[in-house]
Design a protein that fits this description.
heterodimer; A: MetI-like fold; two-stranded antiparallel ribbon; flat; B: alpha/beta; Rossmann fold; six-stranded mixed sheet; 37% helix; globular
Chain lengths: 238, 249
């Protein structure tokens, strides 16, 4: 059809490359998403303590990792750290290896990048809870921690779910940049295949389809969560 | 002795500034147990701030605040405020219900989570309170599904569930339409008649005249005049009170 040739898909070698690629992509996305959310929670909670030095540290972290390309961060963790001496020597062969593997470098940089975005999203969620609502909780005898747990966090979580969906879907797609530092994820596997077969268009169409499917599933799950948590009068609630 | 007189609430010479703006310039006020006191006055005269000093939501700069046996101005930590907050409930202009919880849960939350009362017992109490504020059947509605007047009555039930000795009402009908105002005022009137100590900031002059034992007129951070409603409304002594009343009555 349309002169597209998918006969190479029958080759078990290519099949294995691609399936392994999808698996690595999923692992990278899962690890960095979880770490990003964890960083976001710690950072946003840290900011509620209102300590000027902690605020300054968190702000610097956000500025650095939100405002630099994730690709640059991956290259930094993988190559630059090695160049300035972060290496391990294999005791058997005596060869020098980078301290961080390609996968770990990619996971770290995606976690930090996503984490910086999550801090901002969670902070905006906490800020969106009306001061008057918190005042009402205080007047009922809630302490700061109780108020956070019972009132502020549950409301804030609902407010920032849509931005979290944006961040996590974007993070999932950004895993493809890890191919540049030779992480054998989907994009890398695809490159391997088409440099063998020269069927670039076919390969790209297929990769596109895989990403659309996976990212749509993720977005759908998060939107479902949004709907389930919604309460009447706000957002998706009626 | 922590108390300097017999009243339940004792304010003496309270001063409070926000930035360079002095909002309270020496407020003194005593409220006896079972008394209903209305505070009236122009916007920005410090009425709401007085209420927030009583339950410690706003720390004062200078002066003396006592509620029952608690010297509010001497409590430094939010945790220390707990016994006070249990004794003094507050109802707000914008209701301030918790939007992610149903009406019944709003009423039950603090007694269970803060006072650690038995959930089963609190549930019964909350259902009875919902009936008392004429909202039986609305227990599982969310605040977003209720009208303003209904939300305000849930807020009153939420305050009552703490079994307070005092309720502070901060312009609780200001955001409501005239028809629902009546329902809320009826509920408050019943509380006053049952002997609940109430301190009300209000713009409802007729209501103040009807339910209050005493009315205080505030202007520019001071209580200008304080008298039983008939005296204050019919024969105001201070020219500022006369001017304000001539504009609102």
């Amino acid at each position: 059809m349309f002169g597209l040739d998918y006969s190479w898909l029958g080759d078990p070698v290519y099949q294995r490359w691609l399936v392994d690629g999808v698996w690595v992509t999923l692992q990278l996305a899962l690890v960095s998403s979880l770490a990003a959310v964890a960083i976001g929670l710690v950072g946003a909670l840290g900011q509620t303590l209102r300590l000027w030095w902690l605020d300054a540290c968190i702000e610097l972290f956000v500025e650095i990792f939100r405002n630099t390309p994730p690709l640059l961060q991956m290259l930094f963790f993988y190559f630059t750290l090695t160049q300035i001496g972060f290496t391990v020597t294999d005791p058997v062969t005596g060869l020098q290896h980078p301290l961080l593997s390609a996968f770990v470098s990619a996971a770290i940089s995606l976690s930090l990048f996503g984490g910086a975005l999550c801090i901002e999203a969670f902070r905006s969620g906490l800020d969106a809870v009306p001061k008057a609502t918190l005042e009402a909780a205080r007047s009922l005898g809630y302490t700061r921690l109780g108020l956070f747990r019972r009132v502020q966090a549950p409301i804030a979580a609902r407010v920032c779910l849509p931005s979290l969906t944006n961040i996590l879907t974007n993070l999932f797609k950004t895993t493809s940049q890890a191919s540049v530092i030779t992480v054998p994820e989907l994009m890398y596997a695809a490159g391997q295949v088409y440099s063998d077969t020269f069927r670039t268009l076919e390969m790209m169409l297929m990769v596109l389809l895989v990403y659309v499917t996976l990212v749509s599933l993720l977005a759908w799950a998060l939107t479902l969560a949004e709907r389930l948590l919604a309460y009447p009068g706000y957002g998706k609630g009626f | 002795m922590t108390a300097r007189n017999q009243s339940l609430i004792e304010l003496d010479g309270i001063r409070k500034s926000f930035g360079g703006n002095e909002v309270l310039k020496g407020i003194s006020l005593n409220v006896a147990k079972g008394e209903a006191v209305c505070i009236i006055g122009p916007s920005g005269s410090g009425k709401s701030t007085i209420l927030r000093c009583i339950n410690g939501l706003i720390p004062i700069d200078e002066g003396f605040v006592r509620v029952g046996k608690h010297r509010v101005h001497e409590i430094r930590h939010e945790r220390g405020m707990r016994p006070l907050r249990r004794q003094v409930a507050m109802v707000f202009q914008q209701y301030n219900l918790f939007p992610h919880r149903t009406a019944l849960e709003n009423v039950m939350m603090a007694p269970v989570q803060v006072l650690k009362h038995d959930p089963g017992e609190v549930r019964e109490r909350a259902i009875a309170l919902m009936a008392k504020v004429r909202l039986a059947g609305k227990e599982s509605s969310y605040p977003g599904e209720l009208s303003g007047g209904q939300q305000q009555r849930v807020a009153i039930a939420r305050a009552l569930a703490m079994q307070p000795e005092i309720i502070l009402f901060d312009e609780v009908t200001a955001a409501l339409d005239p028809e629902t105002v009546k329902d809320v005022l009826t509920t408050i009137r019943e509380l006053v008649e049952e002997g609940m100590t109430c301190l009300l900031v209000t713009h409802e002059m007729r209501f103040a005249r009807e339910v209050a034992d005493r009315v205080c007129f505030t202007d520019h951070g001071l209580i200008v005049e304080s008298a039983p409603p008939a005296a204050l409304f019919d024969t105001p002594q201070d020219p500022r009170t006369r001017e304000f009343l001539s504009q609102v009555l």
